[in-house]
Amino acid sequence: MWKWIRSLLPNNNDDEKHRPNALSSPYAAVKVWFDEDRAWSHWPDREPQYASWNELIGVAVETTDQGPFVEDVWWHLATKDGVVTYPSEATGSGELLERLQKIPTFNNERLIEAMSSTSNQTFILWDHEGRHQ
Question: Of 18, 46, 71, 73, which is least packed with CB atoms within 10 Å of its CB?
Fold first, then answer.
């Protein structure tokens, strides 16, 4: 969870460049990335999943009361065909967050609220109908 809060602050990426390459969390084995057409999630031993930007209908963060020693922040990218889910500690999640924040009407205030949550909640950060601005 702290990684996401730090990612909201300026110059956060400089710290990450100087860290060792060792996996800091078992969830770092999950990889997320994006290109101009899609956002991808790849869990070990599973086929990669993707959400096309032009088919995206919602972005949400789910928090749990299980942290800080167990993953307690989960991202959900929804399309009409399904949901791509990944943990906040996934490799590449900071870069994907920066891309998500470029979506018009992405709700950064709700993101900050989510990152402060220590309970079981779902925070809708963006939807295609603009209901959560």
Answer: 18
The H or E element that residue 79 is part of is: strand 73-79
In terms of DSSP H, where are the helices of the chain? 2-7, 12-17, 93-100, 108-115
Query: What are all long-range contacts of 77-85, with beta carbons under 8 Å and residues at least 24 apart?
Result: 77/39, 77/51, 78/51, 79/51, 79/52, 79/55, 80/55, 81/55, 82/49, 84/39, 84/40, 84/41, 84/49, 84/50, 84/51, 85/41
pTM value is: 0.78
How do residues 55-109 score in pLDDT, each as one tens digit?
999 999 999 998 778 888 999 999 999 999 999 999 999 999 999 999 999 999 9
Least confident of 2-6, 27-31, 88-92, 119-123: 2-6
The tokens describing 103, both together, are 């979506």
